Amino acid sequence: MLSSFLQFLISGVTVGAIYALCGLGFSIIFNASHVINFAQGEFIMIGAMSAVWLADAGVPLPLAVILAILVTMAVGVLLEKLAVEPARKASVTTLIIITIGASIFLRGLAQEVWDKNFHKLESFSGETPINLLGAVLMPQTIWVLGTAVIVILLLAWFFNRTLEGKAMLATSFNPLAAQLMGINTKRVLLISFGLSAGLGAVGGIVITPITFTAYDNGIMLGLKGFSAAVLGGLGNGAGAVAGGLIVGIAEAMAAGYLSSAYKDAVAFIIILAVLVFMPNGLFGRKGTERV
Amino acid sequence: MMEVRGLISHYGRIQALSGIDLRVEAGELVALVGANGAGKTTLLRALSGVQPLSGGAIWFEGADITRTKPADRVGLGIAQVPEGRQVFGPLSVEDNLKLGTYRRRGPNVAQDIERVYTQFPILKEKRQQAAGTLSGGQQQMLAIGRALMSHPKLLLLDEPSMGLAPLLVEEIFRTVTELKKEGTTIFLVEQNATAALAIADRGYVLETGKVVLEGKGADLLANDEVKAAYLGGV
Asked: A113-147, pLDDT tens digit by residue?
């Protein structure tokens, strides 16, 4: 009884950590531009697929991982430069549709560059399961959670402790005033796309030894990450992390106790409930500013 | 120090600035007064580079900066305290001040923050609070302090007295006078023409996008036309 609950919890937290990273990606770009980047899921896929491809080509795993993250960040920066930046004066809705177009394009490209098959990445530290109170913990799970914690702490440090991070926040709160402070707001946008792409790639790579990846893997992961971000309150970093864990755990519990057929529905029920009952999300910014 | 020639700017088809000429010399306090909608804020936005121009040129310290990016103008020493304060509401008072040093970095940040706190002690008291929770007057002090953190050569002030209680207005204008004494060159835009012209070396009167009068602050203050239009009758 306890062991199966623990088992569901472990798998929920694991996949939730990936949703959290993905949700953070959504939030960072949303903060910088008010655009919801629907190509966020494709960043996850590109990270995972390039890592697989590089590893299969004989590149040592650690190097393959680093290169795959860099490749994905480059894709993120290019996406901003080539698709978002030229349309900067368009409405936010137009920009969002551009990102949907970009996600379809990237999926198609991945199909051409790689293939339509499922791929697996070798586990980082073997496959010997660890017994935890009757539940099974794979070493890769520890990699996923450890990586997520480190990345989240680094992000928190960057946004709360460095002037560059605060400048990015300032740009999201008031782009005009940010410009008057000498902050290059175009560069902030570019950095936010690079950063979000990197986050997606990291999540995609560490989870691939557990879940496999394919050219269209980003759709679902992206939507779940989006649910996480909305649940936590779009633009709120801590909210995205909490939202990711909630979506992941709810999904795992539904799959375990009800039926795995309902697994994917959970995230969307959550997102509908949030939009209807608390549109600001759990930790959304409330209107506390004075005019 | 700064010279503006034939500046023209549009909002869509509406012409907001129709050929502005003015100059600000080093060490001067120059006031620009005019009614609502005369183009005062548009002009300041143009000087900071955040307002697209359709004609004219801006020179700063002998260099043409008409095409210089907004962020780089801050680097050159032009800081603006924008209309409506525009503090970063969710960030703390201290973070707002630190962001003022974005282009400068440098080692004396803590010292500069202390100087702002000496000038506005209330900001020190509220240093960890979100800037959005401050009162209007306190936000104005923060906005001025934030701009000073960049060590500006030229400080652009947009309606610093707007929406403030009379006592606070007095305090803000006292601060502006002190800054001038310390050697900062100031270009002050105000609807409160009496107060602005009283402390200004020179002044310009703006009307529907054009400079219609210019002269010494005291002369403009005594000018019948100005009195009738902006100072509430004769």
From this structure: 999 999 999 999 988 999 888 888 999 999 999 99
User: Could you read off the pLDDT of A156-181 as tens digits, one per residue?
Assistant: 999 999 999 999 999 999 999 999 99
Contact A80, A189 (CB under 8 A): yes
Return the number of CB contacts < 8 Å for A and B: 87
SS3 A150: helix
Chain A residues lying within 8 Å of B134, measured CB to CB:
290
Domains in chain A, number = 1
What's the pLDDT at A291?
Answer: 38
Determine, for residues B70 and A180 on separate chains, whether the beta-carbon distance falls below 8 Å.
yes
Task: Please state the rounded mean pLDDT for residues B179-206.
Answer: 93
Tokens of A68: 């795959």
Q: Do A170 and B130 touch (CB under 8 A)?
A: no
Instruction: Note the pLDDT tens digit of each residue in A38-93.
Output: 999 999 999 999 999 999 999 999 999 999 999 999 999 999 999 999 998 899 89
What is the rounded CA–CA span in Å between residue A202 and residue A43? 9
Which of A18, A7, A2 minimizes the C-alpha distance to A218?
A18
Q: Does residue A263 surpass a pLDDT of 90?
A: no
Rounded to whole angstroms, the Cα distance separating A255 from B178 reads 69
Which residue segments constitute the domains of chain B, with CATH numbers given? 25-51+70-230 (3.40.50.300)
- Determine contact, residues A231/A239, Cβ cutoff 8 Å: yes
B92's tokens: 């703390």
Task: Please name which of A165, A283, A244 lies closest in space to residue A173, comparing C-alpha atoms.
Answer: A165
The residue type at A78: L
**DSSP bridge pairs for B17:** B9
Q: How many C-beta atoms surround the C-beta of residue A102 within 10 A?
A: 21
CATH (domain of A81)? 1.10.3470
